[in-house]
Amino acid sequence: MEPTMGPVQAAADGPYSFSSQPRSLPSRPKYREQSSAAETEKVRYGNIMIDPRVVRGNVLSARPSPPQSTEPLTLEVKRQKRAQKHTQARRLTQEQIRPGTPEPVEGRVHVHVQTELYLEEISDRIIEVDGECQTDEFLDRPPTPLFIPAKSGKDVATQIEKGELFDFDIEVKPILEVLVGKTVEQALLEVMEEEELSQLWSHQRAFAELRNAEFAELQRLEEQDRRIREEKERRRLEHLEKLRKQKETAEKIAARAFAQRYLADLIPSVFNNLHDSGFFYDPIERDIETEFLPWLMSEVEEELQKKVLGRTMLDSLIRMVVETRLDEFSRPPPAAQTKGPAEEPGATDAAPKMSGEEDAADQPAAEKEETDQPGAEEEPSDSS
């Protein structure tokens, strides 16, 4: 027998089964050894899956019997077990290396087939046969026969000839009278019912016509009443609107008269206040104040700043020249220039004299400018 399904496919499709390799149980004594209470407390199986006392797997298949000998394992037995483990590991490796059957195409599945010469039935289940027996059905109890009392007395018979007890013509006459009478009565009742129904229908038609006429008259009266109410409401609204407009017109007339009386003295006072506040002004004067005077002041300020800058520069130059000459005069003269002492002081005195003349020339011009614009000069000096 050769399986044609891969190990992965078989594990996925087939039912779950315990796959541990079979092994023999270790030898153990017949009776348990007496252990202390502390050791007993240590062995505590909280999960039945790890409890060795629980039997796992198929309980119907034959299980290998444990060895009966209680002798300790010898070296030869250990070697045999080790060789068995190696053999099983090699076989398991070969099975894993062996290529499996490819996956089935869509719509098909792999099945196990027998490849031996003679086929045999293989089953993991014990053959079971159902047997049954059937008892006879319960028979119904036969019915109880009728009670017939015993016959007593003598039988007497009387001979009756034809026509002695029943005459058809005589006996049928009352029956016919009853049948004919009932038929005629039923016909009369049906005719009377039809006439009554026709009268009822005529009354119903007349009543329907009268009701329709009354309903039409009622609708006409309701419509007339509705038109009268609408007209009354419209007239009332028109009157209210007229009164509102009259009141609004009277209020407008009164407000206009009040406004005219109030504004008679208000307009002159408003114009006076606006004129006092400066809203009414001369355009030429405003132009001079807003355009010309600021421009003039800015130009004067720039001119004064230029003059102040020139004076400042001139003062700095004079200060530098004075300091330079003071340094030169403070140095001792060299030995080669001891001759002619009267000539050099004359040259040196000329320069201070010239500078003094320049200061004297500039001072009257400055004083003249200050007298011309005393107010304009004060502002740049303050700003500088």
TrEMBL record:
The answer, when asked if Phosphoprotein is one of the entry's keywords, is: yes
The UniProt transmembrane annotation reads none
Q: Give any Pfam family that matches.
A: Radial_spoke_3
Q: Which domain of life is it from?
A: Eukaryota
From start to end residue, where is composition biased (Basic residues)?
79-89
Q: What name goes with this protein? A: Radial spoke head protein 3 homolog
Q: Where is this region: Disordered?
A: 1-44, 79-105, 328-384
Record's PANTHER family? FLAGELLAR RADIAL SPOKE PROTEIN 3, RADIAL SPOKE HEAD PROTEIN 3 HOMOLOG
Subcellular location per UniProt equals: Cytoplasm, Cytoskeleton, Flagellum axoneme
Parts forming coiled coils: 211-260
Q: Which family does it belong to?
A: Belongs to the flagellar radial spoke RSP3 family.
Which species?
Geospiza fortis (Medium ground-finch)
Biased segments, Acidic residues type: 369-384
Q: Name one GO cellular component term.
A: cilium
Keyword set, alphabetical order: Cell projection, Cilium, Coiled coil, Cytoplasm, Cytoskeleton, Flagellum, Phosphoprotein
Principal location = cytoplasm
